[in-house]
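Worked example 2:
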Amino acid sequence: MERQLTGIHHVTAITGDPQRTLDFYSDVLGLRLVKRTVNFDDPGTYHFYFGNERGEPGTLLTFFPWPGARRGRIGTGQVTAMALSIPESAIGYWTERLATYGVDARDPEDRFEETVVGINDPDGLAIELVGRPDDDRAPWPSGPVDTRYAIRGCDAVTLSGRRCEPTQALLDQLGFRLAGERGDRLRYVTGAGRSGTRLDLLCESDPTPGLVAAGTVHHVAWRTPDGKGQEAWRRHLAGSGIDVTRILDRGYFRSIYFREPGGVLFEIATDGPGFLIDETADELGLQLKLPSWLEPRRPEIERVLPELELARARRG
């Protein structure tokens, strides 16, 4: 089957201070900085990619850190939380670790027979740590968190909307399957239905719309294995009257973008070519990498970008 979404490829959010973002996700959450590049549409801004040892699709969180950016507002028409998978036995470890770093963790709650711990990053971005018994993805073995407890990758995203029916219709069109319902929360899965393949849809009664700025999710990207499948998705979406972009080369994968009816920006990204095309596995994240068309502007770009202390990110 040409058209298939196998799960989450990455989640991209907006933050404020670049150093604070780097420190929190590498030192506190224990993710590896696997690529340090720039926002291709705004080269004066970093684009950080965090993930497992090689930055495999499904383990990736990416950030546009804009110093001085105003704080966003979480509300309808947004991805209002991103969930990260941890071993089921690691809930207690993470509660203690977060307290050590001064991160307020909400009391664990049960959701669809899983334990969920909610936190916010320094910019207010909503993150959930979900205890999963069946996530066999390999974490970063050289990071600051013991592999027995380390984050495995993305688990799910939560979308919030006031009118859910049009979004549900699109999810059906994209091949998602309704897997559960708890109150106003609908759980959808795609692909094999394991960790990293899930989307929760919250049908909110509060009509307050979200505002995308620092501390909010910019978009969620879904995986398709290759360019052939991506081209098939683009033809299908355009043929259905959906305003979808042309295929864009992001260097480490190719992308198309469109908005679901509730307003959330979706991306469909290819699995390859991956992050090893311009750095070795040992060097990932240590150098500022620019696409060939921006390389002539490197001196100008490096003057504008804030300086970073990468000591923590160099682990491994």
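The mean pLDDT is 95. DSSP finds five helices and 16 strands in the chain.
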